[in-house]
Structure formats: structure tokens, C-alpha cells
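Hello again, I could really use a second opinion on something today. My current little project is about how a certain protein chain folds up. You're getting the sequence in one-letter code plus the fold written as C-alpha cells. Here's the protein in full, and shout if anything looks odd to you:
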Amino acid sequence: MRWLLPALAADGATYNEPQDHSFMYGHGFAELNRHIWMILAKIEAAMGKPVLASCG
């Protein structure tokens, strides 16, 4: 959630609750101009490393 704090400090807003599915985490925010961004982090079981993706 550390990535969300700068967006909120710049008067952005969250538009949904954090989603934690144990293998994947997601949370989103809306910019000042109300564009919505959803950030997802998926844990690859074989590699054990987080993989980040964003949809906007």
C-alpha cells in the first residue's frame, strides 16, 4: 500500500477496498481528473516473487 500514499497525498481518492486473495493483492485509486487506476500484485507460486501490473 506504500504506492497508494503519494496518490492520496495529491488529493486522489480510493474507489474500492483493498482486495487480498493470498496469491494476489489489488487496490485502486482515482486521480484528480478522476482517471481510475487499479494496481495488482500477483505472487508467482513457482518463483515466489511479486509481479506488478497496472490497468488504467
Q: What stands out?
A: The chain has one domain: 4-55. Residues 4-55 form one domain. The radius of gyration is 12 Å.
